[in-house]
Amino acid sequence: MDGQNLSIYPKHRGYFNLIGLSAELVLLIGLLEVVGGFFLILGLLTRITGLLFTIEMISAFIIVNISNVVILPEGYELGLLSIPILFMAISISLMLTGPGRSSVEWNIIKRKLIPAGKEILEALK
């Protein structure tokens, strides 16, 4: 898929080009955020989705800080730049803790991607 054919995302494609990324990433990042968001809501592949979101937020923080495109108002530098750091911390916590008790992965599938989490919680009972 050619980046120039992504005409349904002209505003986002222009922003990605402005910060030095290819236009194809608009679709890839959009899919990651929508599908990953549904996975997190349902509680499916929580650790893998958390890892992908962590990588995305690290990349977003680095690229936006390097690009110097985002003009930060005086006195708000840390406030605006802390949003990707906050999302990264949330993603890391999801990656480490895994799915909760009300998730599909925990109750219905009963799959253990990383089995230590469930055993530790059951041992604490």
Descriptive notes:
By secondary structure, the protein is mainly α. The chain has one domain (3-123). It contains six helices and no strands. It has helices spanning 10-18, 24-42, 46-67, 77-97, 104-109, 116-123. The protein is elongated. The model has no long low-confidence stretch (mean pLDDT 76).
The domain count comes to 1
Helix content: 55-70%
Name the beta content range.
Answer: under 5%
**How many DSSP H or I helices?**
6
Rounded mean pLDDT score: 76
Structural class: mainly alpha
Radius of gyration: 18 Å
- Major sheet description: none
Number of strands: 0
Task: Write down the overall geometry.
Answer: elongated
Q: Report how far apart the termini are.
A: 52 Å
Order of helices and strands: HHHHHH
Note poorly predicted spans: none
Entry keywords:
mainly alpha, single chain, 6 helices, 68% helix, 125 residues
Brief sketch in words of this structure:
The protein is mostly helical and 125 residues long.
Which helices and strands, and how do they pair?
Blueprint: H1 10-18, H2 24-42, H3 46-67, H4 77-97, H5 104-109, H6 116-123
Helix pairs in contact: 2-3, 3-4
